[in-house]
Write a structure and sequence with these properties.
The complex is a heterodimer of chains A (515) and B (484). In chain A, 74% of the residues lie in helices and 3% in strands. Chain A has a domain of 182 residues. The termini of chain A are far apart. In chain A, helix 3 runs antiparallel to helix 4, helix 3 runs antiparallel to helix 21 and helix 10 crosses helix 11. About 2% of the residues of chain A have low confidence. Chain A is globular and about 65 Å long. With 515 residues, chain A is mostly helical. Chain B has 484 residues and is mostly helical. Chain B has one domain. Chain B is 76% helix and 1% strand. Chain B has a two-stranded antiparallel sheet. The radius of gyration of chain B is 21 Å and the shape is globular. The two termini of chain B are 33 Å apart. The mean pLDDT of chain B is 88. The chains are: A mainly alpha (515), B mainly alpha (484).
Chain lengths: 515, 484
């Protein structure tokens, strides 16, 4: 590829943000339309990735490499594989939706808001493209500043507390990772090249040290139990766009970090730490679910459901087999779509009522029928109903975890039941029941809002029915990763196919059941 | 250059051209003020021109020793001098409007600043403990006077007296250390001391180690390292704000320069003895500086404690005890100059006639009334925290790399934790500016010179954060051929 497409994707939003700087702040129309057009161009610019991506190789594609800081052997090294491509596309899409949902909701300091949003987009895509640890860390941390502002400036009543908590949690984790990165640099032959570092074999003790150093950053970001406590506050207090970015992309970076760094660089430590990681994931699934049942705040409930769902993701990843890992990655995308959609929807209704208390709602189905229909699909996808994307991901994860450790699969499955309970109960309390006087006469969704939600709805159904569309991108990369970590490709076949995979999984499960 | 032709018969003087040019500049500044009061308006321009000329001489200097080996000009001293000159130039630019509102636009202001810079130059180039002491005193006395320049403000005088007493105390300790050392080695030449230390087997001699300790204490005073930092908050708070900015950069980098020069040449054989000691000092400095900064309500005082904390980070490179570490420390001080000068520039931007606006509360809602000033302050605060892609991150990263290489994992992890703690008080400024509503509105005292300074600082903070290559190479080569 001659066109540096990844660089364009990273820096286009940054340039867009800079272009917004001189715009007169009294002209919100120009600001909003500029931001929207930049984000739209960005999405179109990312489409070639989709078509030119070679699904038959696990090596990095669209690679760009240039010397950056020669004194430390740091390179500007970009590239994507089947795992990262999906997140880049999702980031590009989600940013547009965030701009749309903020169209009228953001009333003060609009210019700064859209600048922050575009800067976050650039940094997010940078994180997913970086193949140099130093570059990765720069993007990883650069996201903190705009996100801190988005939560703290445009958030809810307790926004400042939430923003500071978010920042400090993430910063402590990141700094510990930085120590790990430097140690890796010293022992790995003075290079930050992720691919070169993955090729090396480090002593087990060092691997364990690095694993925990990286864990500090990634577990906070995911967030895994017990370092999840920043998430409910940040999710709840952030404005709709902030919650969507957090839910859809930001917290995925933790899981992405495990896949890109922890597993390839510390394979032996990952295998050794498999059971503890599975245990933490299961606690997150069940604990997050139970906490959801007791929530009275709409956004807080969805936030805790994220803890539970991300528990599924890490469970899948650390099952260390094909089904689990592919399910985990798919579930990351799914959770991004579904929870992103839920936060978008909640943002829309919040804009009308300015309350997040569940008891302030009720009977919304008869007053906002279109909204109720959208929310219904999102709820069912969150529950994991077959036919929606949520089902495929959760099913694969359960399959994988059952093969890895059967008790883990069993306990995780109860999480699905709890999930159904709190989501359906939420739906009942908001949309059915006698109508609350506060919601009578609310206008239904307008065209802009429908356009905002529609892509998510389509994705939910399409991925639910044709998961191979996404899974095809994953097979080779996941098989390559697993071969590296476990020495066993666990289903190497480049195109096992979705059904064959399930059949294979069933065969592996059946003997366990007979026991 | 014509100066070189003129001085051709005196090679020693050619080597000292930057110092001579500063000396002349200082005298001219004082003289101009005496001759004509009206000419005061051009004092900053004379200063900037003189600084640029000095920088030219500096770039032109060949390197070598002079004055019987007492004076050395090398890449190391040049690097330090560049940072000092940057400090003087920044201070001149940011003090423009401030001097008028405080009615202290005197020749002495600029003259003293230049003389103190001359002292720092001499410290950086000292190859002999006596020369070092002379430079240190020249610097210190000029700065004592600068601190006291706010004559109407008792805080300023109090700060100066405190600073003077503490400074005199530390000078005495330094002299005591030097005399002990002279008694045992019979020399004050830095290289000769190193030879004598090994030749006479002094590496475990208690008296020699006591001398090393005395010198370490004296230098710790100068760089404001804990537990020798007690003068700092009061002196920084009482001094005129531009001078506070100058003090947090100039004397500090000069202090590090002599610390590096003396400990890495004369005392390198006893590195095993002093490195752990400096490790403890670095830990305490980072810890106390950051933790006490948390509870400040005055932003000036907060920045004073933050300056202490940053000296602690910079000490990590000295603890590493390698040339890489020392170059990381120097590099950090250069990068710190940009972000700290920027932050103080904003402080001065808020100063109005009769209103200093030095409390954190004055920053409430700044983003609403003055979005550009708030955005710049945000940038400097995040850089001081060490968040990429700013210069502050690059500086810390280099220090961490050099310290981890020598196995100081505990220190680096503590530095990380303390950085996270520091985020809390730097963020408080951002929080107040962006997330709270203003309770009053006031005009900014913007002047062209100040805007130029802020622009340079901002470009430096971002530019060196994204493309630090050239500065890293410069800091790296500054150490070449310096270690024995």
């Amino acid at each position: 590829m001659d066109i540096p497409i990844l660089s364009i994707l990273i820096f286009l939003p940054v340039v867009g943000a800079l272009a917004l700087l001189p715009v007169d702040r009294e002209r919100p129309g120009i600001i909003k339309w500029t931001a929207l057009s930049v984000a739209t161009i960005e999405l179109f610019a990312s489409i070639p990735l989709w078509f030119h991506f070679d699904k038959t190789t696990a090596s990095m594609q669209f690679v760009e490499k240039a010397s950056w800081i020669p004194a430390w052997n740091i390179e500007y090294h970009l590239g994507i594989d089947g795992i990262s491509i999906l997140f880049i596309l999702l980031s590009a899409l989600v940013t547009i939706l965030c701009i749309l949902v903020s169209w009228n909701a953001i009333e003060k300091k609009r210019k700064e808001f859209f600048i922050s949003l575009l800067l976050i987009e650039g940094a997010m895509i940078g994180v997913f493209c970086s193949l140099d640890l130093f570059l990765f860390y720069i993007f990883w941390e650069a996201m903190l500043i705009p996100m801190f502002l988005i939560i703290g400036v445009w958030g809810g009543p307790k926004r400042i507390y939430a923003a500071v908590k978010f920042f400090l949690y993430t910063l402590v984790g990141s700094l510990l990772m930085l120590v790990g990165i430097i140690i890796l640099y010293q022992t790995g032959g003075h290079t930050f090249d992720i691919l070169a570092l993955s090729m090396q074999e480090f002593p087990f003790r060092l691997q364990m040290l690095l694993f925990w150093a990286f864990f500090a950053a990634f577990a906070v970001k995911v967030p895994m139990w017990p370092v999840h406590t920043w998430l409910p506050d940040a999710h709840t207090e952030a404005p709709a766009a902030g919650s969507v970015i957090l839910a859809a992309i930001l917290i995925k970076m933790g899981a992405y970090g495990f896949l890109r760094f922890s597993l390839p660089i510390c394979p032996d430590a990952s295998v050794a730490m498999m059971v503890p990681m599975i245990v933490l994931s299961i606690i997150a699934i069940v604990y997050g679910g139970i906490i959801c049942l007791g929530q009275t705040d709409l956004k807080r409930l969805i936030a805790y459901s994220s803890v539970s769902h991300m528990g599924f993701v890490t469970l899948g990843i650390f099952s260390l087999n094909t089904q689990g890992m592919e399910g985990g990655i798919l579930q990351m995308i799914n959770h991004g779509i579904v929870t992103g959609a839920l936060f978008l929807a909640v943002g829309m209704v919040y804009e009308r009522t300015h309350t997040r208390r569940i008891e302030d709602y009720g009977g919304l189905a008869s007053h906002m029928p279109i909204f109720a229909a959208f929310f219904m699909v999102f709820t069912l996808a969150a529950v994991g109903l077959p036919g929606t994307n949520g089902f495929v991901g959760e099913f694969l994860i359960l399959l994988g975890s059952f093969v890895a450790r059967s008790w883990a699969g069993v306990i995780a499955a109860t999480g699905v039941i709890i999930g159904a309970a709190y989501m359906l109960w939420l739906y009942q309390r908001i949309f059915f029941n006698p109508a609350n006087s506060k919601i009578i006469g609310l206008p239904d969704l307008d065209d802009r809002e429908i356009v905002t939600l529609l892509p998510m709805l389509i994705l939910i159904l399409v991925v639910g029915i044709f998961p191979t569309l996404l899974l095809d991108y994953l097979h080779v990369s996941v098989a390559h990763l697993l071969a590296h970590v476990t020495g066993n490709t666990a289903g190497t076949g480049s195109n096992v196919g979705y059904l064959a995979e399930i059949a294979g999984g069933m065969k592996q499960i059946l003997p366990h059941i007979h026991h | 250059m014509s100066g070189i032709v003129l001085l051709a018969p005196y090679p020693d003087l050619i080597l000292a051209l930057p110092e001579i040019s500063l000396l002349v500049l200082g005298l001219v500044l004082v003289a101009v003020d005496i001759v004509s009061r009206k000419a005061r308006i051009i004092l900053p321009w004379i200063t900037l021109a003189g600084v640029s000329l000095t920088a030219l001489f500096l770039a032109d200097s060949a390197g070598g020793t002079a004055f019987g080996g007492m004076f050395i000009s090398d890449a190391y001293s040049s690097f330090v001098k560049i940072v000092v000159l940057a400090g003087v130039a920044f201070t001149t630019l940011i003090s423009d409007r401030y001097l008028d509102t405080e009615d202290m636009r005197h020749g002495e202001y600029y003259g003293l600043m230049v003389f103190s810079a001359l002292g720092m130059f001499i410290m950086a180039s000292a190859a002999d403990l006596i020369v070092l002491y002379l430079g240190l005193e020249l610097m210190a006395f000029s700065v004592y006077c600068l601190v006291a320049l706010l004559k109407q403000d008792p805080r300023s005088s109090e700060a100066a007296v405190k600073y003077f007493l503490m400074g005199a105390f530390s000078s005495a300790i330094l002299l005591y250390g030097i005399s002990l050392l002279y008694g045992m080695t019979g020399t004050t030449d830095l290289l000769a001391i190193a030879d004598a230390m090994s030749a006479y087997g002094l590496t475990h001699n208690p008296a020699a180690l006591a001398a090393v300790g005395c010198i370490l204490i004296a230098f710790s005073f100068k760089v404001a390292a804990v537990p020798f930092h007690f003068w700092t908050p009061d002196a920084y708070e009482g001094a005129p704000t531009p001078i506070t900015a100058f003090m947090s950069v100039g004397p500090k980098v000069a202090g590090f320069a002599v610390l590096g020069r003396v400990f890495f040449t004369s005392f390198y054989d006893v590195e095993a003895q002093w490195a752990p000691l400096i490790g403890v000092i670095a830990f305490l400095t980072m810890g106390i500086g950051n933790i006490v900064a948390l509870s400040q309500t005055s932003i000036k005082r907060m920045l004073a404690y933050s300056a202490i904390a940053h000296a602690g980070y910079a000490l990590l490179g000295v603890v590493a005890g390698t040339d890489e570490g020392l170059s990381a420390s120097l590099n950090y001080l250069l990068l710190y100059t940009f972000m700290n000068m920027g932050a103080f520039g904003i402080l001065i931007l808020l100063c109005g006639p009769g209103e200093r606006r030095e409390t954190l509360d004055d920053y409430r809602g700044l983003a609403k009334n003055h979005p550009m000033a708030a955005a710049l302050m945000l940038l400097f605060m995040f850089s001081l925290t060490g968040i990429p892609p700013t210069a502050g991150f690059i500086g810390k990263f280099y220090l961490f790399v050099s310290a981890l290489k020598e196995g100081h994992t505990f220190l680096v992890i503590s530095a990380c934790i303390f950085s996270a703690i520091s985020a809390f008080f730097y963020l408080r400024v951002v929080r107040l500016m962006y997330m709270e509503e203003p309770d009053k509105s006031f005009p900014l005292s913007l002047s062209p010179a100040l805007s130029v300074a802020l622009l340079i600082a901002a470009v430096g903070v971002i530019g060196l954060g994204i493309a630090p290559g050239p500065v890293l190479d410069m800091a790296g080569s500054a150490i070449m051929g310096f270690m024995r």
